Amino acid sequence: MTIFKIRYPSDSYCVMGYLSLPAEYEWNEMRLEHHLLQALPEKDRPCLKVNKVAENFPKRFQLKADHMLADFFPAIVYCRGGIGRVGQVRLEWMHDFSQLGFVVFAPCYRGSEESDGNDEFGGAETMDVSVAISMLQSLPFVQKNRISLLGFSRGSINAAQAAYFNPSIHKLILWGGISHLANIYEERIDLRRMLKRVVGGTPKRYPERYASRSPEIIVTKLNSPILLVHGTNDQQVDFSHAIRMEKVLREKGKNPVTHFYYGLGHHMPRPIHEAAVNRMCDWLCQK
């Protein structure tokens, strides 16, 4: 299995992301770059660059072969948590998903890892996610009707927004996700300065900006199946966010699936994390 780092165009910016392929379908960087170039308008082609960054990970999972369709694979767009250097893309997560038979794309978001622009924490950088979906759709080995979104922590904002802007999305997973950003502002004193900087002010001054970055408001407009994954002892995004999200969805007549992990936090011990990933991927592969 190989992971590539890709520089790609999003709006007027060149941004970075990672792509991992199951070992059963390997392309080298030259072939991948050539294919992606053909899918771009000529004016955007100078931005594109593909480099191999990792391969030969230890094998932890068995491929879910019964979930493949001949040589076509389902895909996940993994929206990372954090901002800037905090909470960067976890390559080991991508490796885990690809070992289970998924093509995975993880945007870094503009402003991170040599990407142009600025991360607005649920603002214009969500376009980077939408472009990633389009790139996956252009790959001949991806099942275009089975591209799902996974938002971890703050990535739940971008994943929910991207699901709204891309209604063909198969399923949506919010793992350790935020329900309303204004609640994070109140709960996480350590994040207030950052939120005021990237959002432009406080929830009291700009309630509409915080609302537009709040998955609990966005997901009620979606038709995709939704999975909520959360540890009950999460200190970064309190478990109350998952409870609130579930309540809002059920009040709107939707039936989210919940995978709650009692006594566990934002990050789980490796054996439990692997079990949670297996369980999540089983849900993704259900029809």
Automatic annotation (TrEMBL):
Domain of life (superkingdom): Bacteria
An example molecular function term from Gene Ontology annotations: carboxylic ester hydrolase activity
Organism of derivation: Alicyclobacillus tolerans
InterPro entries to which the protein is assigned, alphabetical: AB_hydrolase_fold, FrsA_esterase, Peptidase_S9_cat
Key words of the record: Hydrolase
Name of the protein in question: Prolyl oligopeptidase family protein
Gene Ontology biological process terms in this record: proteolysis
Matching Pfam families: Peptidase_S9
Gene3D superfamilies hit by this protein: alpha/beta hydrolase
Residue span(s) of domain Peptidase S9 prolyl oligopeptidase catalytic: 97-286
